[in-house]
């Protein structure tokens, strides 16, 4: 049976490190290799950066990790509650290179898809499996 | 989580920028400002030492790409020092390994910059 860990961070750049390190800790419980853990860390950080950049959403980013056997599923979505921080305060627009973050996520994770969540827009869902 | 930036004048008109820590969406602006300040001063040949960088994401890559674009407009170069396999992997999969010179030592990067 899957075990779930929910994490909710303020939708601000300074909190992204907390998200990636927390999910890395979860990945290490599955006995992923160090390289795979680094892949997951980067993918989660890129997903959070995308969530910060998104035009819609509330004051938080919600990250749900489902651990199921040899599989880690991570879903990242913006909250609906609270006011989004002013974009200029949380992200320097010039730092982002179009599509590079999503390209990295797709390269580093085994499965990546966007799912519609009623009233909340899209959530990014990504899966990493323990190498056999 | 933080990034430390140290700028050193090297031989010729080249500067070495030592980065230490993690380059992510939070710390990238500090790196961008430091590199931008150098380029604004007319420094167009840069060696960026990533040996003490433990982590870089797309925003960090964006800063490096942006700096490279700016110095190239003046005939300059940005060469990197990097031996960390995880960071080299990011340059590999994004294809940036073909755009930046990536060297295993500062000496090699300096020679390529001269």
Helices and strands in order:
The complex is a heterodimer of chains A (132) and B (114).
Chain A: E1 3-10, H1 16-29, H2 34-53, E2 60-68, E3 71-78, H3 87-90, H4 100-108, E4 111-117, E5 121-129
Helix pairs in contact in A: 1-2, 2-4
Chain B: E1 3-9, E2 14-23, H1 28-40, E3 45-56, H2 58-72, E4 77-81, H3 85-94, E5 101-103, H4 106-113
Parallel strand pairs in B: 2-3, 3-4, 4-5
Antiparallel strand pairs in B: 1-2
Note down, in words, how this protein is organized.
The complex is a heterodimer of chains A (132) and B (114). Chain A is an alpha+beta fold and 132 residues long. Helices cover 36% and strands 31% of the residues of chain A. The model of chain A has no long low-confidence stretch (mean pLDDT 88). The model of chain B has no long low-confidence stretch (mean pLDDT 94). Chain B has a single domain (3-113), classed as Transcription Regulator spoIIAA, CATH 3.30.750. Chain B is α/β, with parallel strands linked by helices. Chain B is built from four helices and five strands.
What is the level-2 CATH architecture name of chain B? 2-Layer Sandwich
What form of chain A results from the Cα inertia axes?
A: globular
Q: What's the gyration radius of chain B in Å? A: 13 Å
* Strand ordering within the main sheet of chain A: 1-2-3-5-4
Low-confidence stretches of chain A: none
Q: In sequence order, what are the helices and strands of chain A, one letter per element?
A: EHHEEHHEE
First and last CA, distance of chain B: 34 Å
Radius of gyration of chain A, Cα only, in angstroms? 14 Å
CATH class designation of chain B? Alpha Beta
């Amino acid at each position: 049976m899957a075990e779930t860990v929910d994490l909710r961070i303020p939708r601000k750049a300074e909190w992204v490190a907390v998200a990636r390190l927390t999910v890395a800790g979860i990945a290490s419980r599955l006995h992923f290799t160090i390289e795979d853990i680094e892949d997951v860390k980067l993918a989660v950080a890129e997903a959070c950066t995308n969530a910060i950049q998104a035009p819609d959403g509330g004051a938080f980013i919600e990250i749900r990790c489902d651990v199921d056997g040899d599989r880690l599923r991570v879903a990242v979505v913006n909250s609906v509650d609270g006011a989004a921080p002013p974009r200029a305060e949380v992200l320097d627009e010039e730092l982002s290179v179009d599509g590079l973050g999503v390209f990295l996520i797709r390269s580093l994770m085994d499965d990546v898809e966007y799912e519609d969540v009623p009233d909340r827009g899209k959530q990014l869902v990504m899966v990493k499996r323990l190498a056999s | 989580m933080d990034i430390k930036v140290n700028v050193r004048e090297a031989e010729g008109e080249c500067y070495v920028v030592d980065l230490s820590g993690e380059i992510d969406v939070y710390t990238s602006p500090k790196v961008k400002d430091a590199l931008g300040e150098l380029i604004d001063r007319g420094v167009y040949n840069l060696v960026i030492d990533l040996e003490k960088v433990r982590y870089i994401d797309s925003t960090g890559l964006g800063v490096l790409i942006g700096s490279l674009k700016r110095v190239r407009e003046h005939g300059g170069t940005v060469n990197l020092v990097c031996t960390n396999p995880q960071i080299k992997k990011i340059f590999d999969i994004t294809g940036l390994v073909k755009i930046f010179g990536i060297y295993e030592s500062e000496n090699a990067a300096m020679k390529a910059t001269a």
